[in-house]
Amino acid sequence: MKNQWTLLIGLVFAIIIAIFAVVNVDQVPVNYIFGEAYWPLILVILGSALIGAVISASFVFFNLFSKTRQIKHLTKDVEQRDQQIEQLTKDVAQKNEEIQHLEKDLHAKEKQLTKQQHVQLPNVEQEIIPDEEQ
Asked: Tell me: the pLDDT tens digits for 74-114?
Protein backbone atom coordinates (compact mmCIF):
# COMPACT_ATOMS: atom_id res chain seq x y z
CA MET A 1 0.00 0.00 0.00
CA LYS A 2 2.88 2.35 0.83
CA ASN A 3 4.47 1.77 -2.59
CA GLN A 4 1.17 2.59 -4.31
CA TRP A 5 0.96 5.93 -2.50
CA THR A 6 4.57 6.69 -3.36
CA LEU A 7 3.93 5.89 -7.02
CA LEU A 8 0.78 8.02 -7.03
CA ILE A 9 2.54 11.01 -5.48
CA GLY A 10 5.42 10.62 -7.94
CA LEU A 11 3.01 10.62 -10.87
CA VAL A 12 1.24 13.75 -9.57
CA PHE A 13 4.59 15.55 -9.30
CA ALA A 14 5.56 14.39 -12.80
CA ILE A 15 2.31 15.75 -14.23
CA ILE A 16 2.77 19.08 -12.43
CA ILE A 17 6.34 19.36 -13.76
CA ALA A 18 5.22 18.44 -17.29
CA ILE A 19 2.43 21.05 -17.27
CA PHE A 20 4.80 23.66 -15.89
CA ALA A 21 7.39 22.78 -18.55
CA VAL A 22 4.86 22.93 -21.42
CA VAL A 23 3.73 26.38 -20.32
CA ASN A 24 7.32 27.65 -20.24
CA VAL A 25 8.73 26.92 -23.73
CA ASP A 26 10.75 30.13 -24.08
CA GLN A 27 14.48 30.06 -24.74
CA VAL A 28 16.51 30.81 -21.61
CA PRO A 29 20.23 31.25 -21.11
CA VAL A 30 21.93 28.48 -19.18
CA ASN A 31 25.23 29.58 -17.65
CA TYR A 32 27.92 26.93 -17.36
CA ILE A 33 31.21 27.48 -15.66
CA PHE A 34 32.92 27.47 -19.05
CA GLY A 35 30.24 29.16 -21.16
CA GLU A 36 26.62 29.99 -21.81
CA ALA A 37 23.96 28.38 -24.02
CA TYR A 38 20.30 29.02 -24.83
CA TRP A 39 17.97 26.13 -24.16
CA PRO A 40 14.21 25.81 -24.15
CA LEU A 41 12.92 26.23 -20.61
CA ILE A 42 11.09 22.90 -20.88
CA LEU A 43 14.41 21.06 -21.30
CA VAL A 44 15.99 22.97 -18.42
CA ILE A 45 13.07 22.10 -16.12
CA LEU A 46 12.92 18.42 -17.14
CA GLY A 47 16.71 18.09 -17.02
CA SER A 48 16.81 19.62 -13.55
CA ALA A 49 14.03 17.30 -12.39
CA LEU A 50 15.87 14.29 -13.86
CA ILE A 51 19.16 15.26 -12.23
CA GLY A 52 17.35 15.74 -8.90
CA ALA A 53 15.73 12.31 -9.22
CA VAL A 54 19.06 10.66 -10.02
CA ILE A 55 20.76 12.34 -7.05
CA SER A 56 17.90 11.38 -4.71
CA ALA A 57 17.91 7.79 -5.98
CA SER A 58 21.66 7.51 -5.48
CA PHE A 59 21.29 8.67 -1.85
CA VAL A 60 18.52 6.13 -1.31
CA PHE A 61 20.57 3.30 -2.83
CA PHE A 62 23.65 4.26 -0.83
CA ASN A 63 21.58 4.29 2.36
CA LEU A 64 20.02 0.95 1.44
CA PHE A 65 23.43 -0.55 0.70
CA SER A 66 24.90 0.64 4.00
CA LYS A 67 21.88 -0.64 5.97
CA THR A 68 22.13 -4.02 4.23
CA ARG A 69 25.81 -4.27 5.14
CA GLN A 70 25.03 -3.30 8.71
CA ILE A 71 22.27 -5.92 8.93
CA LYS A 72 24.63 -8.63 7.61
CA HIS A 73 27.30 -7.60 10.11
CA LEU A 74 24.85 -7.59 13.03
CA THR A 75 23.35 -10.92 11.96
CA LYS A 76 26.82 -12.46 11.90
CA ASP A 77 27.54 -10.97 15.33
CA VAL A 78 24.28 -12.38 16.73
CA GLU A 79 25.09 -15.84 15.34
CA GLN A 80 28.53 -15.74 16.97
CA ARG A 81 27.04 -14.71 20.29
CA ASP A 82 24.42 -17.45 20.05
CA GLN A 83 27.22 -19.97 19.53
CA GLN A 84 29.06 -18.54 22.54
CA ILE A 85 25.91 -18.76 24.67
CA GLU A 86 25.35 -22.35 23.56
CA GLN A 87 28.95 -23.26 24.38
CA LEU A 88 28.76 -21.52 27.78
CA THR A 89 25.48 -23.29 28.55
CA LYS A 90 27.13 -26.63 27.78
CA ASP A 91 30.09 -25.67 29.98
CA VAL A 92 27.79 -24.72 32.86
CA ALA A 93 25.88 -28.01 32.54
CA GLN A 94 29.19 -29.93 32.52
CA LYS A 95 30.43 -28.03 35.58
CA ASN A 96 27.14 -28.71 37.40
CA GLU A 97 27.54 -32.43 36.68
CA GLU A 98 31.10 -32.28 38.00
CA ILE A 99 29.90 -30.51 41.15
CA GLN A 100 27.21 -33.12 41.71
CA HIS A 101 29.74 -35.91 41.18
CA LEU A 102 32.19 -34.28 43.61
CA GLU A 103 29.44 -33.79 46.19
CA LYS A 104 28.53 -37.48 45.93
CA ASP A 105 32.21 -38.40 46.32
CA LEU A 106 32.49 -36.08 49.32
CA HIS A 107 29.47 -37.62 51.03
CA ALA A 108 30.77 -41.13 50.30
CA LYS A 109 34.18 -40.25 51.74
CA GLU A 110 32.59 -38.69 54.82
CA LYS A 111 30.60 -41.87 55.44
CA GLN A 112 33.68 -43.99 54.88
CA LEU A 113 35.70 -41.82 57.25
CA THR A 114 33.10 -42.02 59.99
CA LYS A 115 32.94 -45.81 59.63
CA GLN A 116 36.72 -46.19 59.71
CA GLN A 117 37.36 -43.97 62.69
CA HIS A 118 34.20 -44.94 64.58
CA VAL A 119 33.78 -41.37 65.49
CA GLN A 120 30.86 -40.76 67.73
CA LEU A 121 29.56 -37.30 67.91
CA PRO A 122 28.75 -36.10 71.40
CA ASN A 123 25.15 -35.69 72.32
CA VAL A 124 24.37 -32.07 71.70
CA GLU A 125 21.61 -31.92 74.30
CA GLN A 126 23.88 -32.98 77.13
CA GLU A 127 26.53 -30.39 76.38
CA ILE A 128 24.19 -27.43 76.31
CA ILE A 129 24.32 -25.60 79.59
CA PRO A 130 21.22 -23.60 80.30
CA ASP A 131 21.66 -19.83 80.53
CA GLU A 132 20.37 -19.78 84.10
CA GLU A 133 23.20 -21.90 85.46
CA GLN A 134 25.90 -19.65 84.03
From this structure: 999 999 999 999 999 999 999 999 999 999 999 988 888 88
Pairwise CA distance, residues 38 & 36, whole Å: 7
Q: How far apart are CA 5 and CA 1, in angstroms?
A: 7
- For 41, 42, 51, 57, 86, the CA distances from 12, given in Å and listed in that order, are 20, 18, 18, 18, 55
CB neighbours of residue 110 within 10 Å: 10
Q: What is the pTM of this model?
A: 0.49
CA angle 86, 90, 92 (to 5 degrees): 115
The closest of 27, 45, 26, 47 to 36, measured between CA atoms, is: 27
Alpha helices, DSSP H only, in 41-127? Answer: 41-117, 124-127
Fill in the amino acid letter for 89.
Answer: T
Cα–Cα distance list, 19 to 35, 54, 81 (Å):
29, 21, 57
